[in-house]
Amino acid sequence: MNPQPLLTPVKLGCYQLPNRVVMAPMTRSRTYNRDQAPTELHAEYYAQRASAGLIITEGSQISPQGVGYIHTPGIHSEAQIRGWRKVTEAVHARSGRVFLQLWHVGYVSHPDFHNGALPVAPSAINPNTKSFTPLGLKDTLTPRALETSEVRAVAQDYVRAAANAMAAGFDGVEIHGANGYLVEQFLRDGSNRRTDEYGGDIPKRARFLFEIVDGVSDAIGSERVGVRLSPANTWNVPADSDTRALYDFVIGALSGYALAYLHLRESQGDLSAIPNMVANVSEHYRTVYRGTLITNTGYDRKRGNEVIRKGQADLVAYGMPFIANQDLVERFRLHAPLASVDQTTLYQGGAKGYTDYPSLQAEAA
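^ thats the sequence. predicted structure below, dont judge the formating
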């Protein structure tokens, strides 16, 4: 009997993975301490899911300036490095591989996180969305545009955060360039109206991303670096005037790097009213990107096997299914039913809705 493509080995960067099932990065808001550092609870949560070919952690702030949601961890202090080391040691003890996602939310933040100061962004444009603050959801405000020297400094924050991640024992890092956060704010001309070297035509708007990729690759090795992009995203950021041309350029240029992987989010919803936006993201960019490709968003076991069988991706990242199914790989192997997620505990609580979902073995006992 032919094995499921999802369950076959694959090379990713300098690592040989036992399967092609990736745990997608997911904010869970379980970091309740003042240091914004992971705890033993985080270590248990990720270790439970170590049978994934690769775990990509929740987004972690590269600096205090990057925070925009309550109870999210960082990777810019010694306490945070120590906290994350508990996670990496627990995952490695179960023979897992884990990358840390590097995160700066840009304008998707609020002065409540910054002692009253405005969040920063490429340009002073209000995204008109919500920020999840200690006092609940609040409307975003018009941010402060970063000075040119500050943009370069933020790129270096990514480099330091990557070095911190390696000090914490991670196998690599993922640069978060998706979901309307800072990197994507620089890429899109609807959120980037700069007139310096970081704004204007597509190569200039992409300069910030490539300075980060260059710096992080030089610091830890490109084979330990992944990049996440969302070419069909309209959440937190407006569509570009020519989104297809933008991402054709960016992804084509990334193809020249020996990265561990490129991680692409598929479209959500109807994009027919948006001109020049690619709907079938992985199918289109498989012909543009020559390296290892991870696809994400809306996959089940059947569709995941199909996209790999067709050669449109090398690995498939799963989000929600991994929350309620710590042994998702085993459930896929046995064609077992999946447990459902308790939506009320996604972003609140301790162990409940986090580490208390039973495995198949526990369910059978």
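The longest strand covers residues 54-61.
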